[in-house]
Amino acid sequence: MKSGKSLPWQKPWIGYGRPRNYVTQKKYSGINLLLFPTPGEYITFKQIKTLQKSNPSIKLKKGSKSNMVVFWKFLDKNKNEDIKESELELPVPVNQKGKVQFLDTIRYFIYHV
């Protein structure tokens, strides 16, 4: 141990860790960890277009496959707000403040860098 050599049970490589966004460096979490084929950095098509404005040589490789990402958050609406009856057909949870909670989801596609 004191000789400075690596221990035989330590991994000799550095892993990528969790998938993250190339531009924002935010790590993806939740269901998105199961949707990515490999760890590493990912970028959206819109982010590629923004980067191309400052550096026109940046291009998406022809035939690149996209991966789906799911963004979700809870939305609270007051009971007296205009809520469509179709939204209330299922039992909806009401929080302590008397607001109806909805789960809002957005899916978009990203590319591995």
TrEMBL record:
Pfam families named in the record: ArdcN (PF08401)
Superkingdom in the source lineage: Bacteria
InterPro entries tied to this protein: ArdC_N (IPR013610)
Domain annotation N-terminal: ranges: 2-91
Protein name per its UniProtKB record: ArdC-like ssDNA-binding domain-containing protein
Lineage: Bacteria, Bacillati, Bacillota, Clostridia, Eubacteriales
